[in-house]
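Dear colleague,

Following up on Tuesday's group meeting, I ran the structure prediction for the two-component complex that the binding team flagged. I've pasted the input sequences exactly as they went in, so you can double-check that nothing got truncated or mislabelled along the way. The structure tokens for the whole assembly follow below. Feel free to forward this to whoever is handling the docking comparison.

Inputs:
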Amino acid sequence: MAKVIVTAQRLRSGRSHRLVAMRATLVLTFGVLTHVPAIPQPAMMTPPSTLRETGLYANFGTLDVDPAHLAFAPQYPLWSDGAAKRRWISLPPGTAIDGSNPEAWIFPVGTRFWKEFSFNGQRVETRYLERKPDGQWLYAAYAWSADGRETQLVSARGKRGAYPLAGGRSHTIPGVADCKACHQGGPSEVLGFGTLQLSPERDPGAPHAELQPEPHVDLRYLVDRGLLVGLPKALLEAPPRTVAATATERAALGYMHGNCGHCHNERGSLQNIGLFLRHSVTNAGEPAIASTIGQPVKKQAPGQSPDAVLRVEPGHPDRSGVMQRISSRSPALQMPPLGTELIDDEAVRLLNRWIAERGASIQQASANEGR
Amino acid sequence: MHRALPLMVTIALLVPSAVPAQDSAGAQVKRGEYLVSIAGCHDCHTPWTSGSAGPEPDMKRALSGHPQDLTISAPATLSQPWSGAMNPTSTAWSGSWGVSFSANLTSDPETGVLRDFTEQQFIQTIRTGRHQGQGRPILPPMPWPAYANMTDDDLKAVFAYLRQVPPVKNMVPDPLPPKQ
């Protein structure tokens, strides 16, 4: 600053203009350079090079999972082209999840998650999440060898052709950017381990429902053992469930929560689209109903039929935008846009039924009014 | 004078802060323009034409993407060892992914691809290579993996610049799937 003042005085005095201008330039250049923000460097988070090193197994030779880890299954599983999945969570000893915000649990540093994907009884990949001391989550995926004896850390760019699927397609192990596209799309980076997904009142109509593995981890289990603290008591007294008029609607809303809500929610970066498919345990109504039924398609996706002007047109699943998206696996049209190569036929049937029943109930209500 | 004093003080406080804010916004747009010029955005997003010194971007249609009246209905037919092709306007690219058409990046409210993007979504798009950060994949040859290394400030500058690029009404066609 002092140099700038001196420079200004010399300029005013009219002495040595060229020299002063040169010095001023140097001073200003120095000032600008010292104020250029440093390029942010991503936190150095190098995943273990093998799955064995993540600590999942007590004995890798026999593939016995460490009994200290808790196996669990969400009530509305994510569709992954029919892969059979096993999941575990590990909390550091003496720690607990903070559930005081039931929409976004806070996991202690050191929390680890594993999700194993198998097709036709063959392990193909195991995904891994770990909360690091700086609060960031580490993402990794491990590909299994064909003989199921070895694992290898998958490149951050992912791996195509990991397992052959129907129709000439194949399973892709997603890259880290794709993992984050979903996991960072809402209020919590952890998906599938939250208030609705672990409700003790599980939906018998949930598509692809899985049997709960021992020891039957749900909200009550976690709270009773001090592994989940701060959860509002009301959620234990009245276990959370979607607000639905029928069993079909309950399952449809749950499916969308588990398969679409991680991106389409009121808190994430896509909120300006106004499509909210994530169930909120603190809302009185269902955003998924309010934001789909009779609501216009905001922007036609490439390949979408022009007659689908509404997201959900009751009684007309064929002209409902939601159905056209989930019934496609054309990359520009399909929903979800990643993590799946095959249409989820069971979900298509469920949502078709839901939209058809919605139309029938409106017709019935109109008929009753006319009497 | 006594009554005017608070008003004068208020003005004195507000004016100096407003001017730097405008300067800052202007500087951000200028930086965005600079980054767009060096990052090769015009190479694909501005239609090329034949100039006196050979092919050059037609800046009258700057950043408006593949011209809507230039119909392409099938991927290029290629022979070994070639794996890709581009059209004369450098806005349509054919390869193993099918045919991609460069997007209209102008501020046109009806046809500009960024019309529904927030700044955060734009940054995420470049970081993840997915539409609005989480949607359909952005097709080659868009070099988003390289641009993903840009700082947030640089990407914000690019977005600020693109949001004020003169609108060009041009509905870019949907991509074509690869040959079966």
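Chain A is about 25% helix and 15% strand.

Cheers,
M.
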